Every structure is written in C-alpha cells, then in structure tokens.
Amino acid sequence: MAKTKRATTLVLRFMAFGATLAATIVMATSHQTVDVFATIFSAKYTVSPAFKYFVIANAIVSAYGLLVPFIPAESKLWRSVFALDMVFTMLLISSFSAALAIAYVGKKGNAQAGWFAICGQVPVFCDHVTGALIASVIGFIIYMSLLLHTIHTVLNPLLVGGLG
Question: Angle at CA 107, nearest 5°, toward 132 and 31?
Fold first, then answer.
C-alpha cells in the first residue's frame, strides 16, 4: 500500500514537472517579429512583466518539482513538502492569472483604455502564449491533485486518529 501511494505521488510529481517545464519553455521561446504599417513590431514574453513573472514562477516550480522526489520519506524536510506544495501551487495560479489577464488584453484589446488587440498581427506569438497557459493550468491541476492526495493519505489518518 505504501509503495502504491509513493508511486502515485511520483507519477503526479513527474507530470507536474513536465507541465511546468513545458510552460516555461514554450513561453520563454515565444516571439514573433512582424512589419505593421512599415514599422517593425516584435512580440516576445520579455515585454510584459506578467509574462516574465509567469516564466520565472514556472521555472521555480519546475526546479522544485525536480528536487522533491529525491527527498527521503523519512527526512524531517519531507514534513514540509505539503506546505511547500501549497506555496508553489499558489505561485502557479497567481502567475497564471497575471499572464492570462495580459493574454486576454492581447487577444481582445480594451477599447476604453485605447489598447488594441495584437493577436491578429502576431498569431504565432499568441498561439505560444496560449499553449504555455494551458500547460501551466495543467500543472496547477496536478499540484492541486497532489495536495488532495496528501491530505487524504497523510493528514486524514492523523485527523481521524486524533479525534478518536
């Protein structure tokens, strides 16, 4: 039973690592240069602080996801993994939210603020951003699953045993 729980956790962590790494790579490599009305326009993730935050947050969570499986289950550090999972899950969702807001403005614009939609001019860039956002939300869902799995397997017996 313990091996099944550990295997489930490792598979989920590997999937989360893959999703966050994919989000990082896809967003970091997204760029497109076009000629709009005789003006060279370059779209890349570095022009938006929200996209930079997205790349940095996903890179941090990827590094965390790569290191956690190597922590021995008997270690005192392992006890903090639940809290760290929660922190990094919140980091993922906050970076996703910030990047999604900017992506929405890029796709739809905002007439009241005078912001024009740019996805018509740089569709490859917008497609990369969309792919990175999808990968990141998949990573978030997997980390939420890890949190629920941890609550069910580790914290639930403690709570039930402590109440009885």
Answer: 50
